[in-house]
Amino acid sequence: MSAAEREPTLSVTDLHKSYGTLHVLKGVSLSVARGEVVTLIGASGSGKSTLLRCMNLLELPQAGALQTGRHRFAFGKGQPLPRDAELALLRRDVGMVFQHFNLFPHMTALQNVTEGPIQVRNMSKAESIELGRGLLAKVGLADKADTFPAKLSGGQKQRVAIARALAMKPDVMLFDEVTSALDPELVQEVLTVIRELAAEGMTMILVTHEMAFAADVSTRVGFMNDGILAELGSVEEVIRRPQNPRLIAFLNRFHGSRSG
Amino acid sequence: MYAWDFAALKPYWSLIWQGLGVTLFYTATTVLAGLLIGLIVGILRTAGPRWASMPLRAYIETFRCTPLLVQLIGVDMSAAMACFIALSLYAGAFYAEIFRGGIEAVDRGQWEAGRAIGMRRSKIFRRIVLPQAIQVMIPAFISQTILQLKNTSLVSVVAVGDLLYQGTVITAASYRPLEVYTTIAVVYFIVLFPLTLVADRLERRLGAHR
Fold this sequence. Notes:
The structure holds two protein chains of two kinds. By secondary structure, chain A is an alpha/beta fold. Chain A is about 35% helix and about 25% strand.
């Protein structure tokens, strides 16, 4: 059974998003099945990050639909904009990790991780601390629980950010260029954590420039070009034997700079 | 050469204490009221409805850009009440801008991170943004509070018996203006200087994670 035939964990349908006259998404549909790892590649400005940010509605599309679990949102003429409370409920179940970490600087690593469970899931403090310590251990930072973000390296910060997102026990994880702001020698420690999550069967959608990594972990790869999901297929189809001339041109620019 | 004679002030010390009490009273009450006004106005200006922005801006700029002295005598009611209201609104206008600046200084990514873990706006504001904003605001906040204490001296022109007013009274009785005003200045300094030290410590303590 192909991935697309299984029951989707998250799907978007015909998403359109513009900023003023700039049409960033021109009708994108994507359905991600449980346990899948879909990476989105493409040049900067192709709309891949915007697409990802529409999946937890940090960006609201002007038209289209989003569905994940029990959450359904439709956008377009005559559709009311979702309320803050509805958006918050959606985002409990869709975790996101950012390029620039966005850790809470006034909280320790552990407090960053327990903030969501305590404040949003109403978990008891003791339980959340146990959960938080477990997750920090999982990302290799058990000894940094009481450290403030300012004292962590970029790679460590990003691993805390992953633990923070995991603490909400999301159905899907979104990764938005999570290694782009890191020094090269710190990239691997973050990719290793993501690989482990993939191996555990976490459903993930990633925007990345790490082609070798994408080829390694993805069940499917999507190529965004000019606001459209121009290609969507297996690693073999999209990265190893690309047919689309624009995709070939894009991949050629990555030769010699491969890592992961 | 002028012969300083601070001993001449001895009979008037009780007046100075009385004046200090009035000064501190006005400072404390108007700082509290001003903070409340400033917090509400500052939040409304950053996160409130758009239609509220213009009138709030008008309020802020009216009180920031006209002399406090005019504000004090421009209100037609008892001197004490007029002073309290004018000083509170005046402080509120400045505090509002300090709050707004502090809130806007917090990185947009902090809001996004809060939203991404399912927090609602009000909770993000309280738990994530405000604590960081307060830290940014402390130096400006302390300066404004120090100014506020000194600004209360303007109430003396409407015959409210603050420290400076008593100074004027004592001068009239003792003919010792240099001693009187020097003493008054020293009293202001003794009250305010420790406040700056508290500010330094507070800043360091809240900034411990940096």
